[in-house]
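S.,

Sequence below, as promised.
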Amino acid sequence: MANQTPEEINKEKLYDAAMGLYGIDAQFVMAIEECSELIQAIIKYMRYPQIDKVLNVKEEICDVEIMLEQIRRYFDKRESKQQIGSIDKMKKIKLARLHEMLVNDGVNFENSIEGDKNVKNNN
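The prediction came back faster than expected:
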């Protein structure tokens, strides 16, 4: 695995190996730590929006996504046994709710582009 390119790495095997070696409880704690680091990076960026702060936020986003993918894999593997709603289904419901809230707040998605006047700025 050490000689593989990032494209060649099987994430599922990698995540399973990490959870198997360190244990799910340790991975939960690591996810909390990574989320905390992302929070700190975002706060620093909000205070000082410089390029090094942007890079730090992006790096922390990567760390959080990796940990979330591991946790998601853990719960997805147990989903069929517990017969609970899937993460994808829950996410669709939450995205639909967000869409509805934005439409109710006057956002026009047909004419909307990033940073346009349809997006409220709370600063």
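The mean pLDDT is 85.

Coffee later?
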